[in-house]
Amino acid sequence: MFVDSHCHLDRLDLAAYDTGLDGAIAAARARQVSSLLCVGINLANANRVVEIAQTYEHVYASVGIHPMDVENLDPNDDPWSVLTRLASSDKVVAIGETGLDYFYSNDSATVQRESFRQHLQLAAKLEKPVIVHTREAQQDTLTLIAEYGDSERGGVLHCFTEGWDMACKAIEMNYFISFSGILTFNNADALRQVAKKVPLDRLLIETDSPYLAPVPFRGKSNEPQYVVEVAECLAQLHGVTLEEIAAITRANFERLFLRNTSYYTEKLGQT
User: Fold this and answer.
1) Which terminus of the chain is more solvent-facing, meaning fewer CB atoms within 10 Å of its CB: N or C?
2) Closest CA to 158 of 127, 128, 183
3) In the predicted model, is pLDDT for residue 175 greater than 70?
4) Closest CA to 131 of 168, 101, 156, 167
């Protein structure tokens, strides 16, 4: 029923589960969260996220280098050949997490922009969507997407916290807007106003777990099962039922990430 379109399964706090990651995935499925996208952030965890996706049915992966990790690359590394090889897996459905973050690391802006450009070009070459992290870098993010992105495949601005102007411009470039548990925070009124404006056919939901647990779990380690709380908030904002928002965001997830996979081809053949 529900989809967590962005989580870091390799980083979950599994202390509560005797069966480790199996337990966390089972807990999510008990709350009808049946599909998960495990997102890569660097070369160190890229193999692991692909391994997780290959182990579990309806768990998918992305591979990329987070903007906060680009400075840690070894000059002798060839990250693009590594990402290209890993992206050949049937379970790797996107390139990223990539993007720009000037809030924490404005000093590395030049390196971040070059990395983001190469991610966008690689995604276009491989015909995969892009998962974009953006913080205090609105104009540069939009400019690079416009110049180097593939408007046919598009992508998603994940864990969105920016304003309506940026969301609108991204949507015009065939991007989806994904909301996390931040949407439920007491101080997120402005963000909720943005979420109300995003067309239903451009919405995604995520946890970004283990970070940013939604209310009423704020302060705890986040898990994919808590994406239901994000869905509940969005349903209220748009005046639709929880079941409707679940179906809408699942269809959006499938359209963005799975349309080149056998899963989507088989589904289309059944309709």
Assistant:
1) C
2) 183
3) yes
4) 156
Following DSSP, what letter does each residue of 71-89 receive, concatenated?
GGS-TT--HHHHHHHHTTS
* Token pair recorded at residue 185: 């925070």
**Token pair of 165, please?**
């102007």
Contacts of 177 (CB under 8 A, 6+ apart): 156, 157, 160, 167, 170, 171, 195, 198, 202, 203, 204
Q: What is the CATH number of the domain that holds 74?
A: 3.20.20.140
Total domain count, the chain: 1
pLDDT exceeds cutoff 50 at 160: yes
Angle (nearest 5°) at CA 83 between 78 and 89: 145
For residue 101, the enclosing domain spans: 2-270
Overall pTM > 0.90: yes
Question: Distance between CA 5 and CA 227 in Å, rounded?
Answer: 9
* pLDDT band with cut points at 50, 70 and 90 for residue 271: very low
| C-alpha span between 139 and 120 (Å, rounded) | 16
Average pLDDT (73-86) is 89
Q: Please give the single-letter amino acid code of residue 237.
A: L
User: Token digits for 265?
Assistant: 């081809």
Q: What is the pLDDT of residues 129-150, one digit of tens each?
A: 999 999 999 999 999 999 999 9
- Say whether pLDDT at 1 is over 70: yes
